[in-house]
């Protein structure tokens, strides 16, 4: 079994929101940043400068997706990206020629991430090819009426039984429940859009009420309210 199996779930951010990337980096949570063609196009800046900024902003990996379908073109793009930094992971759609491309890149020592995954067979194939990461689109799988949690559990069990190194990376995670599905399944990584990442730190009415009771009790007693140990200045 690969050394990565059984370790803590990696947190990646699927965003180019620099403030959130800094937040996760400062907490020591950040394993890397994922991008896709839509994210980079929305930046309305030269792609090269955006990628440079993301590499400078955090010490982890940076996943960048190819934008063509045939293997020869995918390989050319991938090799140019990999030459830019050894921290770049190449995202390849797990269909058609993409499998050939991932196999070739992994043989060359260029790490890949199988993306656009909706079925467990795509994850199994990525495992057989020695791909570093396989990213199922959890929210889209659920929107299609399928059981994303079952797909995670089944795929993780298969990879573990076969001793494959591929880490499943939960992607398109749009809710805290989907995040917890990833944690329960024991998969290797999850990549979160900005809104889902923020939800991890949000309060709830129950928490707010409990904290309010603590504060009320503290302020009602002059010995606690005036304690020098708890001054805020």
Task: Write structural notes for this entry.
It is built from twelve helices and eight strands. The protein has 233 residues and is of the alpha/beta class. It has two domains: 10-202, Aldolase class I (TIM Barrel), CATH 3.20.20.70; 204-233, no CATH class. The protein has an eight-stranded parallel beta barrel with strand order 1-2-3-4-5-6-7-8, surrounded by six helices. Strand 7 (167-170), helix 9 and strand 8 (189-192) form a beta-alpha-beta unit. The chain is globular. It starts with 9 loop residues before the first strand and ends in an 8-residue tail after the last helix. Keywords: Schiff base.
Structural class: alpha/beta
**Using only CA atoms, what is the Rg?**
21 Å
Helicity level: 40-55%
Biggest sheet descriptor: 8 strands, parallel, barrel
Corresponding CATH superfamily of the largest domain: Aldolase class I
Under CATH, the topology of the largest domain can be stated as: TIM Barrel
Distance between the termini: 53 Å
- Beta-strand content estimate: 15-25%
Strand order of the largest sheet: 1-2-3-4-5-6-7-8
């Amino acid at each position: 079994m690969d050394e990565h199996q059984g370790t803590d779930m990696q947190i990646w951010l699927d965003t180019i929101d620099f403030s959130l990337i800094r937040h996760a980096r400062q907490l020591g949570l950040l394993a890397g940043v994922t991008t896709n063609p839509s994210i980079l196009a929305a930046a309305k800046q030269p792609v090269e400068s955006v990628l440079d900024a993301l590499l400078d902003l955090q010490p982890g990996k940076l996943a960048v997706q190819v934008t063509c379908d045939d293997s020869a073109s995918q390989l050319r793009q991938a090799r140019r990206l990999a030459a830019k930094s050894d921290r770049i992971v190449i995202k390849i759609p797990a269909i058609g020629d993409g499998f050939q491309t991932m196999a070739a890149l992994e043989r060359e020592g260029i790490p890949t991430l199988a993306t656009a995954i909706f079925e467990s067979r795509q994850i199994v194939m990525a495992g057989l090819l020695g791909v570093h990461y396989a990213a199922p689109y959890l929210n889209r799988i659920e929107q299609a009426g399928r059981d994303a949690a079952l797909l995670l559990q089944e795929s993780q069990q298969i990879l573990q039984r076969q001793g494959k190194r591929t880490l499943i990376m939960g992607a398109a995670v749009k809710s805290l429940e989907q995040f917890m599905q990833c944690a329960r399944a024991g998969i290797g990584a999850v990549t979160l859009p900005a809104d889902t990442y923020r939800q991890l730190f949000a309060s709830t009415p129950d928490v707010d009420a409990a904290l309010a009771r603590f504060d009320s009790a503290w302020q009602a007693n002059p010995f606690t309210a005036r304690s020098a140990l708890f001054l805020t200045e």
